[in-house]
Design goal:
Elements (H helix, E strand, L loop, with lengths): L9 E5 L9 E6 L5 E4 L20 E6 L12 E6 L11 E3 L20 E3 L15 E9 L4 E10 L6 E5 L3 E8 L2 E5 L2 E5 L3 E5 L5 E5 L4 E8 L23 E4 L10 E7 L2 E7 L6 E6 L4 E4 L20 E5 L9 E6 L2 E3 L16 E8 L14 E4 L9 H9 L5 E3 L3 E7 L4 E2 L1 H5 L23
Parallel strand pairs: 10-18
Antiparallel strand pairs: 1-2, 2-17, 3-20, 4-5, 5-20, 6-19, 7-26, 8-9, 8-29, 9-16, 11-14, 11-16, 12-13, 12-15, 14-21, 17-21, 18-19, 22-23, 23-28, 24-27, 25-26, 25-28
The structure holds fe (ii) ion (FE2).
The site of fe (ii) ion (FE2) has 5 residues, from loops.
Length: 454
């Protein structure tokens, strides 16, 4: 990981550029950099981290995302200069209940279900629902207590968090919006993301999540393990896939609000709340490399087959959360974006396969080429450890007979949260009206073509 100390390129990123929203926020660009930023001039101490008295009489505080002694290339920490230290953003905690937000291990071996599963889009809430109340976990994997594994959830909400802040101590959170734009006001600044973009929040970072539209829906991957990072590119070389310059980290932004707030913390799968008399989003300046970031998936530069056959889908990995075993990710975040299909005398869709990794898929927009029917934006599918899957009957027949001319696969963005751990389905997911009871029928019409003759 490249460590560069200094602001790399502090510029005004105008979202009009993508034709999305008339909303401008400032970002710094690059992945894994060591940034510095201040919302008030002179707020950042120079030449040291912890002066006797900080500028503006702020408090200095270190936020560590790795053990102090972690090797330099994975050592992550930031220095925050805030109106009050974080000990003032805690209090006596009371238990809270968000029964649909689950954390591994949460499955009941007596009621385990095996099979390939798919869900229709999950409905928007009818009552006033904020982000935290609108999370519905579909799968959990591994064990949060050992910092291994993940959870895949849907968020769906229609109310902004105005006086509530949320901290997830269990996991780094990857947001994949599907409907509506949202603003993540983190301790370290504001990020605006829309469908087609993602955001990553570090473990333990406070955030308020607001709506831009009337409602928002999307996917979350909670990562209990080592942080997401860019995958090695091997023989691909120094360019393509997700390029570091396209990642955006917010500049410092803060609230100086002395009004009641409710702080909700997720910790080892349980939820707790405490009352504050002020907003804890009070970081006026910061520097470091333990940071939130966003990324436009449309800047991903795919690399794929130009002759025959096609590589494994890992070629489309945007981010990976490594484990102790080389090449065996706790989570791979993989996308299937717009691209050209040009391979000759080959079967172009994903091949039939069984996989030791467990694959949770979602669709942001368009159609997925292996499943043109039944897999729709806002829905999901799960193909778990060693369970066979692949194109449905029509997709196989069509791809087997198709004229193999160059084809642009357009207006599509599917993604996968793939884990080394089996993903266990939650009770909510199994009992949801969105569960497609006939999903496995998509393979029932696959014909036997073999007749013993060449
Ligand atoms: Fe697969």
């Amino acid at each position: 990981m490249l460590i560069i100390f200094n602001v790399i390129f502090n510029y005004k990123f105008n979202l009009k550029f993508y034709g999305i929203w008339n909303m401008s926020l400032e970002y710094m660009t690059g992945f894994g950099n060591d940034f510095q930023t201040e919302a008030l001039p002179g707020a950042l101490p120079q030449g040291q981290n912890s002066p006797q008295i900080c500028p503006y009489k702020l408090y200095a505080e270190q936020l560590s995302g790795s053990p102090f002694t972690a090797p330099r290339n994975i050592n992550e920490r930031s220095w925050l200069y805030r109106i009050r230290p974080s000990v003032k953003h805690t209090g006596k905690y009371e238990k809270e209940s968000f029964p649909f937000w689950k954390t591994a291990p949460s499955h009941d071996p007596e009621n385990m279900s095996l099979g390939q599963f798919r869900w229709d889009p999950f409905p928007f809430p009818k009552e006033q629902t904020d982000f935290i109340s609108g999370v519905r976990t579909l799968t959990t994997a591994g064990d949060v207590n050992t910092h291994n594994g993940m959870a895949a959830s849907i968020y769906s909400f229609n109310k902004s968090m105005t006086s509530t802040v949320f901290t997830n101590s269990d996991a780094e959170m990857l947001f994949v919006p599907e409907t509506g734009s949202i603003v993540l006001f983190t301790e370290m600044g504001k990020m605006h993301i829309s469908p087609g973009e993602i955001a990553v929040l570090p473990r333990g970072m406070m955030v308020k999540i607001s709506l831009i539209d009337k409602f928002a829906r999307g996917y979350i991957c909670e990562n209990y393990g080592a942080k997401l990072t860019l995958p090695d590119r091997g023989p691909i070389g120094a360019n393509c896939l997700a390029n570091p310059r396209d990642f955006r980290t917010p500049v410092a932004a803060f609230e100086d609000i002395d009004e009641n707030h409710n702080s909700i913390v997720k910790w080892c799968g349980a939820f707790f709340s405490t009352s504050l008399k002020h907003s804890p989003l009070d970081v006026v300046a910061w520097h470091g490399n333990y940071i939130p970031y966003s990324y436009d998936l449309r800047t991903f530069s795919p690399v794929s087959a130009v002759s025959f056959d096609h590589p494994d889908p890992s070629i489309y990995s945007v981010l990976t959360a490594p484990s102790e075993s080389d090449g065996t990710a706790n989570i791979d975040f993989v996308i299937f974006p717009e691209r050209w299909a040009v391979a000759e005398h080959t079967f172009r869709p994903p091949w039939y396969h069984r996989n030791i990794m467990s694959e949770f898929m979602g669709l942001v927009y368009g159609q997925y080429d292996a499943k043109p029917e039944g897999f729709v934006p806002g829905g999901a599918s799960l193909h778990n450890m060693m369970l066979p899957h692949g194109p449905d009957a029509d997709a196989f027949e069509n791809a087997s007979k198709a004229e193999l001319k160059p084809v642009k696969i357009t207006n599509t963005l599917a993604f996968m949260f793939e884990s080394r751990f089996p993903q266990h389905i939650t009770k909510f997911a199994m009992e949801s009206d969105s569960l497609q009871s006939d999903y496995v029928e998509c393979w029932s019409e696959i014909k036997k073509h073999f007749d013993g003759k060449l």
